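Incident log, structure service

09:12 report received: a user says their structure output differs between two submissions of the same chain.
09:20 pulled the input from the user's history:
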Amino acid sequence: MKKTVLFIITLLLFVQCASVEKHNEHLNKLISPEKLKSDVDFSYRKLQKLHPNLYWYISKKELDYKFDSLKSSISKPMLPFDFYTKLSPVVAAIREGHLLVYPPTKSLTKKQIKALIKRGIGPFSQFDFELFNEKLYVVNNKSQDKSIKPGTEVVAVNGVDAMGLISKNNRFYSSDGFNTTFKTRSAGKRFSSYFTNENGIKDSIQFTFKFNDSLKTVTILRKKENPVGKLAEKIKKELAAIDKVKSRAIRRKKRVNGYNKDEKKYSHDLHFLEKDSSIAVMKIRGFKNGRFRTFYKESFSKIEQYKSNTLILDLRDNGGGRLNEIAHLYSYLADSSFVFLDKSEVVSKSSLFTGAYFNGGSFGVKTLKVLFSPIVYGYLLLTVHKEENGTNYFETRTKLHKVNENAFKGKIYVLINGGSFSASSILSTNLKGAERAFFVGQETGGAYNGTVAGFMPKIKLPNSEIQIRTGIMLMRSKFKTTKEGHGIYPDVSIQPTLKDAIYGNDPELNWILKDIKIKYNPMLNK
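09:34 re-ran on a clean worker, output below:
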């Protein structure tokens, strides 16, 4: 039995290594113009079959022209990455944030990944970057070179102009509609991947920095983990293990709240301000992990127990996640029964069937899917309906929901910015449309009038093997705005500065706290 298991494991590792090697070899192979043009046609046909309301932000005539022009421009063989730089701007012209062409990059085996981790933290990961006034800055320095001060401008990396690299890559993806805050907020976080996609993973990077009008070049090497810090962490874990009660509590919190090991932060967090706990602050970094029902049940029970009269919901840099979670959270925030979503638009029954049900999975999983496919298709026949205008709709979260018995009845403030996207924008639309909350910050990256998401299959192009991710459901709140292609606007717009980022100031939260004090003590406003 042991020999059989060992053989299977060895076989799987061999298959994985062979697959990675084949993929990496393909990256360096030129593809003929005929095959590339075939991929262009294939990608457009697939989007027409899967992506609802494809011509929401661009007319069919304009998009047809862009795809035709792309084909006309292909006159010589190209490497997959070069083709990616041609195709992605055309797909980005559709202006849907979930629609993305993945750059073809080198893959690593599990063994190679372990070896890379063992070599230490990469040069880019030793800094946090943010974009301010069309310039990229270091806002946090975790490298061993402490001469690089927060607030230092990044001019170039390995001789590549930093802002030129950002401008180039901004053409390869889109926010929802005509929003600009999404890319501004994303630039710092995506900067390292922009460089790595084109140049590969590096053990050293030569940065050109600018501080107080003085230029300097610094080479940052891969940094091995501090053995003293590692030992301290080990001791801390051992001490926590001795205190079994505390250890169990920490493990439970990580399960319930969701925990990001890399960032060492909880996805869901709740804390209270003021001595009387009158202000509750709920920070949600994403709706993707954690046992959300338990978290919200316990959190709102605690808010009621502490008699908090104000809730600050922080959705900044929340990129979205589970639809059932935001609908559940809204039941704690709504002040009356509600319908969370309109019917979701889909291209057809088959778009859900092929794009969602049959998308992905191993050979064994796909075999099982074939066996159960008649049942699934029968379900789609009952739930997908074509209306008089010829549009197909799939009903999800369209029933009347009751407000949770422990719903919060006090004042709600919501913090938003360009990183608030997808599910967090759908939640914000409902709160804004129902006039249930007061918004502070910047326009969200996700559109007020909905987004194309839901199931998101990946389309693999047959010749270049490039993958395109697309949503297949147009999901909208019942609330709409006449300003198409923009996010939820704040009631009070506050733009953090570079100085705020350097010193850890939170001007948006500070404004809310001041507003609360003025409301409860009007004399402060005189």
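09:41 both user submissions now match this output. Likely a transient worker issue. Closing.
09:42 reviewer note: The chain has a mean pLDDT of 90. The first strand starts at residue 100 and ends at 101.
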